[in-house]
Each structure stands twice: as C-alpha cells, then as structure tokens.
Design brief:
The structure is a single chain. It contains two helices and no strands. The protein is mainly alpha-helical. It is rod-shaped and about 70 Å long. The chain crosses the membrane at residues 6-24. Keywords: Membrane, Transmembrane, Transmembrane helix. This is YtzI protein.
Length: 54
C-alpha cells in the first residue's frame, strides 16, 4: 500500500511540474501583431468607415 501511495505522489508531482512548465512557456511567448499597412484584409478605408458609422 505504501508503494502505491509513493508512486501516486510521484506521478502527481511529475504532472504538476509539466503543467507549470507549459504555463510558463506559454506566458513567455512573444506575440506579434502585423501592422495595418501590411495587412491584406484591410483596404485602408477604416477612417472613412468610422466617420460613416457616427
């Protein structure tokens, strides 16, 4: 019974370490945003659209 409990605790600690490593790697990822000049989905008339909506 003691061996099963020790094995279970080791597995839990291992999963916890892997989880923390994945979260840390995700938060340290540098996200980038394309500038609007180089975005093919924007036709450049965003300012005109904003004026028409008001």
């Amino acid at each position: 019974m003691f061996k099963v409990m020790v094995a279970s605790i080791l597995i839990i600690i291992f999963v916890l370490v892997i989880f923390v490593a994945a979260i840390t790697k995700g938060y340290s990822y540098k996200h980038t945003i394309d500038p609007l000049e180089n975005n093919p989905n924007v036709d450049g008339n965003e300012e005109d659209k904003d004026k028409n909506e008001q």
